Amino acid sequence: MSDQARRTWEYATIPLLTHNTKAILDSWGVDGWELVTVVPGPGGGDQLVAYLKRPNS
């Protein structure tokens, strides 16, 4: 099995403000987080939730 196949991941779920999405994602990206998906928040409306992952250290 390759090193890539054995990699373990750490996950985070964060709320996104629609007027500041790029800045929020950029700040998490600097810390090594990769965006997996964005879905509507549980409250509906303009609320979004981002799911991110990064390799476990």
Gist?
The protein is α+β, with helices and mostly antiparallel strands and 57 residues long.
Structure notes:
- This protein is of the alpha+beta class and 57 residues long.
- It has a domain at 17-55.
- Helices cover 25% and strands 40% of the residues.
- The protein is built from two helices and three strands, in the order αβαββ.
- It has helices spanning 3-6, 21-30, and strands at 9-16, 34-40, 48-55.
- It has a three-stranded antiparallel beta sheet, with helices on one face.
- Strand 2 (34-40) and strand 3 (48-55) form a beta hairpin.
- It starts with a helix and ends with a strand.
Labels describing this entry:
3-stranded antiparallel sheet, 57 residues, alpha+beta, 2 helices, elongated
SSE order and pairing:
Blueprint: H1 3-6, E1 9-16, H2 21-30, E2 34-40, E3 48-55
Antiparallel strand pairs: 1-3, 2-3
